């Protein structure tokens, strides 16, 4: 699927209907939560499938207006399609039951019966076909999850490898609550969430890289970060080339993907999401801390 330019991310058909950027951010987050709840009900353990479903739903609503479609139906259809792409096991009946169960907790809906289940199934199939048209029937969708093992083996100290692996899966899934995956290459999402994960374990990956990355020691932090990104991209590219060679697929033209500016913008979007999911008390406390820091800097 085509990446969306930064300037266009909230300048879409929803804007024409006066759905503001802030509201769209909340809707992106809500889409993700609904799909996650569905996946939990389905006992679906594939982070890749859930991430893909959220991506399909949010991509759809960048091109289509929220006011013209039932976003819960589109979200469920996105999960149905993601399961077909990733797992080949859509389990339609169980999805219908889970969907109805969640909708009953959101709004008053009548008890499930065969007629209602058939109606829901028809709606999901129609929504699925609409999603396919929007994504132009493209199924080779790269996800950050596809490269987690690469970055853990090459960039993580051995003692943090397992913990980082599991933390990354959660952070990547959370990143799909934001607009960032619509804008940035999957490697940017991967490395951005990895930087967040490494901070949780108090190690700076580019200042003390493990030997398997084959990166020369650099004392200057800015220079180390730049060289580290080059080495990480090289490792990811080698992995991608090997995978393409095994499938006889065509290699894409080599261009720099891991740009510092993109990573900075990703981390901004990720922090916005964290703020959005805080309670009002937590938001107020964070705002006070920021104001205090600004006051100290000014003085």
The protein's oligomeric status is single chain
Largest sheet: none
Tell me the structural class. Answer: mainly alpha
Rounded to the nearest angstrom, the radius of gyration is 21 Å
Q: Could you tell me the mean pLDDT?
A: 88
Strand proportion, as a percent range, falls in: under 5%
Q: How many individual β-strands?
A: 0
**Principal-axes shape call:** globular
Overview of the molecule:
There is one protein chain. This protein is mainly α and 299 residues long. The protein has 13 helices and no strands. Helix 3 crosses helix 4 (71-86). The protein starts with 12 loop residues before the first helix and ends with a helix.
SSE layout:
Layout: H1 13-16, H2 21-41, H3 47-63, H4 71-86, H5 92-106, H6 114-134, H7 148-155, H8 161-175, H9 180-183, H10 186-200, H11 221-247, H12 260-276, H13 280-298
Helix pairs in contact: 2-3, 2-4, 2-5, 3-4, 3-8, 4-6, 7-8, 7-11, 8-10, 10-12
Summarize the entry for a quick read.
With 299 residues, the chain is an all-alpha fold. It has helices at 13-16, 21-41, 47-63, 71-86, 92-106, 114-134, 148-155, 161-175, 180-183, 186-200, 221-247, 260-276, 280-298. The radius of gyration is 21 Å and the shape is globular.
Which key phrases capture this entry?
299 residues, mainly alpha, 13 helices, Cyclin-like domain-containing protein, Cyclin/Ssn8, cyclin-dependent protein serine/threonine kinase regulator activity
